[in-house]
């Protein structure tokens, strides 16, 4: 049994390869990130077109602060510029934007843009675009654990009541379904601290294409790969055709 006619409800993408793309084209790394914004625009359009309801994009990890200052600054500036430039089109397409990640280390102008994009797109019904920005899955789990411990200490919760649902509800992704499909571009096969809890039963796909070259045809290919997978969730799936 395959997922043939199933479109994943939630696609999450680790957008990797901007630097290598820039190198291939004799450009600076920041130019790779600029080219990557085009791919974000295309991916949003593709997700909406194919009926994906949630699209999570890993835009900046907590570890990425360790990159050269000039590159980090270029990424922050690009984020602010993109919010201004893309807002009208996102609103028009019915895209709701939500940011996951810690609101630390950011400049006031970036914080303002995060607020602005979340507020102006809040009514979007077509697709939710989740941007993981200053995100670390381990820190997300650590913060959730601290919050749960506090509730137990206050007597609001008993320790034996801490179940999977309680943990899920304390994550930054608490209002979101788990990803069905996780794509990482550029051929790297690792999660790099992305959605560790949420990825428990996700399907994985690692295309070679660098993120700036990821287009509608690549998005479709990812959906086709997903459709060919059999999700078993630890169960035995009976072969219906063989039984007939
Ligand atoms: C992904 O592209 C973008 C971010 C991590 C911000 P990279 O910048 O990691 O590109 P490569 O991996 O160096 O090619
Ligand atoms: C992961 O890519 C983070 C983002 C795509 C935002 P990296 O390029 O930072 O990951 P590593 O260093 O190759 O694991
Ligand atoms: Mg990379």
| Low-confidence sequence ranges | none
CATH top level is Alpha Beta
Average pLDDT for all residues: 96
Reported for the largest beta sheet, the result is:
6 strands, parallel
Percent in strands = 5-15%
Q: How many domains?
A: 1
N→C terminal distance: 14 Å
| Structural class estimated from helices and strands | alpha/beta
Write the CATH fold name: Undecaprenyl pyrophosphate synthetase
**CATH architectural arrangement:** 3-Layer(aba) Sandwich
Strands across the major sheet, in which order? 3-4-2-1-5-6
Instruction: List cofactors, ions and other ligands.
Output: 3-methylbut-3-enyl trihydrogen diphosphate, magnesium ion
Superfamily at the CATH H level? Decaprenyl diphosphate synthase-like
Gyration radius, rounded? 19 Å
Description:
Strands 3-4-2-1-5-6 form a 6-stranded parallel sheet, with helices on both faces. The radius of gyration is 19 Å and the shape is globular. The mean pLDDT is 96. It has a single domain (4-136, 178-227), classed as Undecaprenyl pyrophosphate synthetase. It has 8 helices and 6 strands, in the order βααβαβαβααββαα. It has 244 residues and is of the alpha/beta class. One 3-methylbut-3-enyl trihydrogen diphosphate is lined by residues 14-16, 58-61, 64, 188, 190, 192.
